[in-house]
Amino acid sequence: MIKKYLFVLRKPSYNGLYAQEMLDIILTTAAFEQEVSVLLLDDAVFHLKSHQNTINSAYKNTATLFSILPTMDVDAIFVETQSLLERGLSADMLTLPVQEVSREDITPFMSQFDIVFAG
Amino acid sequence: MKFALQINASPYQSSTSFSAYRFASEVIAQQHELFRVFFYHDGIYHAMKSAMPPDDEFSIFSAWQTLAQQNDLDLVVCISAAQRRGLVEENVAQGFRLGGLGQLLEASLLADRFIVFG
């Protein structure tokens, strides 16, 4: 059985181990050959920010952690345009290629998936 | 309808834990099937055998155990999240079992409705 999963990440990097443990779920889902997409909303857009420095931090670099996604054939990474703009970011400041989705298109975008996985 | 739940919230930090329990109880009361409840992130603390709230407080720990016992529920605690937080096999309360993320995936695949709390 194959379902279309959309993992919606909203929390910031370095907020405990939330991002790292969500990534474990995403990778497990991909390993079971499901259709996996990831949507970064709100502060989760920082996960892929380039030039993160985690020296003297208790946490691993989230951009490095998420760089494993394409090697697991998870290429469908979406970012909400307004979340980027509100934080002074643009897609070219991120470490992986992303597709932008505008805020007003999020609802119809989500409706194409079997499971919208809140994370 | 077949439901599967994931509970990420810790027992006491917010009301989410209690909401999840109430939801699970209602799923059963309305005679739906509760295929599995998967505890992840800080939600694994629900399975602490050594949790002993005072007698005059509601115990979310024993509430889950009773619900599981009465309805033969499958309460699965993510083993990697548990080990990271120091919850090992001998300290897992009755009614819960340790399992992997594959069981979460199976639950989300087979359920008609998959709902995440926290």
Number of distinct helices of chain B: 4
How large a portion of the residues of chain B is in β-strands, by DSSP E?
15-25%
Helix content percent band of chain B: 25-40%
**Gap between N and C termini of chain A:** 23 Å
CATH architecture of chain A: 3-Layer(aba) Sandwich
Radius of gyration of chain A, in angstroms, nearest whole number = 14 Å
Query: Structural class per helix/strand content of chain B?
Result: alpha/beta
- Return residue spans of chain A where pLDDT drops below 50 for at least 5 consecutive residues: none
Major sheet strand order of chain B: 4-3-2-1-5
**CATH level-1 class of chain A:** Alpha Beta
Helix content of chain A: 25-40%
Strand count of chain B: 5
Elements of chain A, N to C (H/E): EHEHEHEHE
Could you explain how this protein is built, in words?
The complex is a heterodimer of chains A (119) and B (118). Chain A has 119 residues and is an alpha/beta fold. Chain A has a single domain, classed as 3-Layer(aba) Sandwich (Hypothetical Protein Ychn, Chain: A). Helices cover 25% and strands 20% of the residues of chain A. The model of chain A has no long low-confidence stretch (mean pLDDT 96). With 118 residues, chain B is an alpha/beta fold. Chain B has one domain: DsrEFH-like (Hypothetical Protein Ychn, Chain: A, 3-Layer(aba) Sandwich), CATH 3.40.1260.10. In chain B, 36% of the residues lie in helices and 22% in strands. A five-stranded parallel β-sheet of chain B has the order 4-3-2-1-5, sandwiched between helices. In chain B, helix 1 runs parallel beside helix 2. The mean pLDDT of chain B is 97. The interface between A and B is medium-sized, with 16 and 14 residues.
